Amino acid sequence: MTPHIYFNSDIDSPVEWRDALATEFRAFTFSTAEAMDSPDAVDIALIWQLPPQGLKQFRNLRAILCLGAGISQLDPSLLPCHVPLARLVDDSLTRTMVDYAKTAVYRFHRAFHIFEQQSRERTWQFRPPTLTRDTSVGVLGLGEIGSSVAKALGDEGFCVHGWSRTAKQLAGINTYLGWGGLWQMLPRCKIIVNVLPLTDATRAILSSEFFSHCRDGVYLINMGRGGHLVEQDFLAALDSRRIAAATLDVASVEPLPPMDALWNRPDVLITPHVAGISIPRVAVRKVAENIRRALAGQPLLQQVDLARGY
Amino acid sequence: MTPHIYFNSDIDSPVEWRDALATEFRAFTFSTAEAMDSPDAVDIALIWQLPPQGLKQFRNLRAILCLGAGISQLDPSLLPCHVPLARLVDDSLTRTMVDYAKTAVYRFHRAFHIFEQQSRERTWQFRPPTLTRDTSVGVLGLGEIGSSVAKALGDEGFCVHGWSRTAKQLAGINTYLGWGGLWQMLPRCKIIVNVLPLTDATRAILSSEFFSHCRDGVYLINMGRGGHLVEQDFLAALDSRRIAAATLDVASVEPLPPMDALWNRPDVLITPHVAGISIPRVAVRKVAENIRRALAGQPLLQQVDLARGY
């Protein structure tokens, strides 16, 4: 079994992935746009985004293995629908997402966003610290990543609420279900962390209506997708101080264009889609398992249901 | 037993402390500079800093209970040396110190200090996240607070080193002893967290010599005292990029004067001495125990040895 792999990503390192795959397969070929095997030989596409021409040149493709936990960066009209598609949620992705959530939540909890501003303004203004149990955090989405984020924040002592589309039970987390549950949860949260997948049901969820249910001065952390956020509604909610400050790891267009109104605001921290990544030397075990399954004609792990969107 | 308490602090709330003491003592008096009992009646001084005239007006003082974990803000020449002095390290102080350390360490670990800068410059520059086990943190000081900080960072998965004056064993932490141990530890650390007490042995420890043993591009977090840091050496180490960035919670003069060179540098975050505080409703149990001990003529908990300095 010699996999013939085509690799395409702007954000993942081809060298690290090739080296990691070499620890799993004695023989394999590894093509990129720059160094291409015969397209007919390629049976696995390992990609973050699609190449501009799509994948139709690979006529013998057995699987598309997306390097992301979400697939909203893939234009569905360019996906060959007879080829199974899997997303990738591995331990290193989950751990980096959890760590990002902690970094962003602690930053608001301990008012570092205010002290950054004060440092630039040469202002020494004491604010007493508070205990984590007095800060409530609401997590939107309780899938594999969301439930790990909620549990980890609970372990830090935060008072954690969690919202999902299907009913979930998580020890120590107050869980809520459906739209009614969301409107119940939002006023209880000082900080909101979005880790939803982007689907037709969740697109534009972070809207004026959503913000109208939040408490005044809420903090928003968007680790989901840019398509969750209605930018005009968000800017209005910042200007009215309904949202006190936000951390956005995702944007509707990435890279976020230099003239976008989200840049250079003291109340918005932009991070360049760095919340989570699958680290090749850790994630390669999960990818190799899916390569073996694809070549053996078995169903993939984390196979995407395109109708559901994840 | 009716304690007569004199309270003095610029940073602690007299109202919260009075309310908290009321949960421990049925009867007590509570004096401040604004509302003073007869000075001869006062038997307990509960203070963060000394009043300008010192404490000599209180001729029947039985104990000085400092509200800080450190006592370097108290001028020893103004302390009546026949009155026992205690410092205060309680659970809420330790927990807020630990949380601050996590906030500051995660901020560097996940490069939020760089993304803050990029947000102001409208720059989207991807940097892949790394796992906590690939970030090494050195903790200076392994007393009650330092060992809690080291353990908590170890629980987050960081690779933790710890340095102390007297030998310490901590599960999962690489410990080092004395000056030789310090020079061994420093090159192994990407991030240094200082939680030492300020004593004659540790004053000005963060000096050119210290920085010369650090690796290039080290991150420094000072949660100890301003007197630990030699400001000119520190600025030189920043300018040469030996230190990549720093978070300073303490300054040699507090509030840090507006024209100080530490302000408004992209590589220095100043926080206004907020790392840890004893939260009255939590810490009052420890304070009440020391009040009872003082009135009963017993030795205090956390009594300070002025020769040692803590």
Write up what this structure looks like.
Two copies of one chain form a homodimer. The first copy, chain A, is an alpha/beta fold. Chain A has helices at about 15-20, 90-110, 110-120, 145-155, 180-185, 210-215, 230-240, 280-295; strands at about 5-10, 30, 45, 65, 85, 135-140, 160-165, 175, 190-195, 220, 245-250, 270. Chain A has a seven-stranded parallel sheet, sandwiched between helices. Chain A has a five-stranded parallel sheet with strand order 2-1-3-4-5, covered by helices on one side. In chain A, β10, α7 and β11 (about 245-250) form a beta-alpha-beta unit. In chain A, α1 packs across α8 and α2 (about 90-110) packs across α4. The longest helix of chain A has 19 residues, at about 90-110. Chains A and B meet through α2, α3 and β12 of A and α2, α3 and β12 of B.
Characteristics:
alpha/beta; homodimer; 310 residues; 8 helices; 5-stranded parallel sheet; 28% helix
SSE order and pairing:
Two copies of one chain form a homodimer.
Chain A: E1 4-8, H1 14-22, E2 29-31, E3 44-47, E4 63-66, E5 85-86, H2 91-109, H3 112-120, E6 136-140, H4 144-155, E7 159-164, E8 174-177, H5 178-185, E9 191-194, H6 208-213, E10 218-222, H7 231-239, E11 243-248, E12 268-270, H8 280-295
Parallel strand pairs in A: 1-2, 1-3, 3-4, 4-5, 6-7, 6-9, 7-8, 9-10, 10-11, 11-12
Helix pairs in contact in A: 1-8, 2-4
